[in-house]
Amino acid sequence: VHPWGIDDGQGWNTPEPAGVADFCTVEKNHLAARHTREIVKPFLNSLRGRVSTVLYSLPGSRDPIRHKLYRSFAHRPTEAQRREGGRELSLKLAAFQYVGEPLPPMLTLSQDKPVIDYFRQFPGLDAGAKFNNDGFWQLPIPVTTDVDVAPDDVVIYDTEGYEPLKRFLQEQGIRHVLLTGYATDMCFCRTTAGYENLSKDFNVFLVGDASLATFPANKSPRFAVNAAISFASLNQLVTQVSWVKLQKEKP
Question: Which of 4, 74, 148, 174 has a Cα-to-Cα distance from 102 of 20 to 30 A?
Answer without folding.
Answer: 4
